[in-house]
Amino acid sequence: MNLSVWAYPWDLHDIGTDVALASLTVQGVNTISLATSYHAGRFLQPGNPKRRVWFPQDGTVYYAVDDDRWDGAEIRPLQADIVETEGDYLGELVARRDAGGPKVSCWTVCLHNTRLGMAHPDHVMRTAQGDPHFYALCPSSPAARAYVTGLAAEISHRYRPDRIELESPDFMGFDHGFHHEKDGLGLLPEDRFLLGLCFCDHCMTRARSAGVPAEAARDKVKALLDAAFTRELPQQQFPGFPQQALDAFRDTPDLHAYLVWRTEPVASLISEIRAATHPGTQLLVIDAEGSWWGGVDLGRIAPHCDGVLYCVYTVPSPRIAPLLASVRKVIGPGKTLIAGFQLFYPEVASAADLRDRVTAAKDLADGFNFYNLGLVPAQRLPWIGAACR
Asked: Cα–chain-centroid distance for residue 283?
């Protein structure tokens, strides 16, 4: 069974690659899922002996970029400064793999990139009212699509990792998390969902070409949001939401048609990424419950990838097996299904709690990923071995 741990290159640097790999392989870990494209944040790192609180450079890649590959590209990756100062850890892990070490997976953030969004405002998601979501490149944008497919091509053809894990190849929601967010209105789930719908020029053009009433859908969402902003207190307009998912909007046919359509840019982007990726590198899409908010339709993307890394971080143990079984039914028996777990406390209370979660998944998953090497104390890593034994 494939057992992997998500890791940041700066943690491998500070812990020491030999020490880090030794601490993981003794737990049965046989793959390292290395962050190769990532976003900004503030990370508390009890597992890192040097960088206890760390602010990663925003929207960069953690490998040696070949500038010649990006000649003429409108959106280009920025190589993180620490690749130059601390080393190319993707290259190091691949060399170690070729010498008999753990397999290498590239944990690749796709469209969630505030640095690139600020630099390329014509290619970010926009609300029905025209406001930009700078943290989210739009999957309908040709330039954003070329950027993501270019990442997969460069990583897979130059480094030949065993797999690539795609994070955020979809429409980012309104509630993803940004610096000092403010909401004095008291947004309802339906309001947050509507604020996360994209009506940028690229989406409008793409939807119209598919025969979707894009303008009518945009005008409906704008009217709904304008009304929500003028009420004294929030008032629900779609009583079936979110339990009924997109069906809650069936009585607004233009909007419903648009919501059904928005799975197309996501699925076709994943298809283009697969075509650009080296055939020897497996392509997995990172997914989780509720991803339909971002335009993900598992049944539609399954033919275009090698499988799914399905995160069940906070799913109670009794629900894990039925949930993974439903995913397996959708993607089919021939696709890889990896279950993603976290080691965060109190969401996972103990080694026994993690063991129960893993046990619930073991007959349905082809492997497990655990989050995250540097974000938890080193003393918690033995939970992995105890759970998987």
From this structure: 13
Mean pLDDT calculated for residue range 296-303 = 98
Alpha helices in the chain (DSSP H): 9-15, 17-25, 81-86, 89-98, 114-119, 142-159, 189-195, 201-209, 214-230, 253-261, 263-276, 298-301, 317-331, 351-361, 382-388
CB 282 within 8 A of CB 161: no
Confidence check: pLDDT of 176 > 80: no
Q: Are residues 353 and 208 in the same domain?
A: no
Strand partners of residue 286: 309
pLDDT at 98: 98
Could you tell me if 17 and 102 lie in one domain?
Answer: yes
String of DSSP letters for 80-140: -HHHHHH--HHHHHHHHHHTT--EEEEEEE-SB-HHHHHH-GGGEEE-TT--EEEEEE-TT
Q: How far apart are CA 319 and CA 138, in angstroms?
A: 33
The token duo for 75 is 């959106």
Average pLDDT on 29-40 reads 97
Q: Is residue 176 part of a domain?
A: no
Question: Peptide bond preceding 265: is omega within 30 degrees of 0, i.e. cis?
Answer: no
Q: Does some domain include residue 183?
A: no
DSSP assignment letter at 198: -
Q: Are residues 59 and 77 in the same domain?
A: yes
User: Can you tell me the distance from the alpha carbon of 126 to that of 136, in angstroms, rounded to the nearest whole number?
Assistant: 9
How many domains is the chain partitioned into structurally?
Answer: 2
Contact (CB, 8 A) for 43 and 24 = no
**Token pair for residue 4?**
């992997």
Tell me whether strands 367-371 and 336-342 are parallel, antiparallel or unpaired: parallel
Q: Is 202 exposed, middle or buried (0-12, 13-18, 19+ CB in 10 A)?
A: buried
Which of 213, 237, 260 terminates a domain? The answer is 260
| Collapsed DSSP state (helix, strand, coil) of residue 27 | coil
Residues 95 and 52 in one domain: yes
- Residues 204 and 149: their CA atoms lie apart, in Å, by 22
DSSP code of residue 31? E
282-288/163-167 β-pairing: parallel
Same domain for 239 and 102, yes or no, is no
pTM above 0.90, yes or no: yes
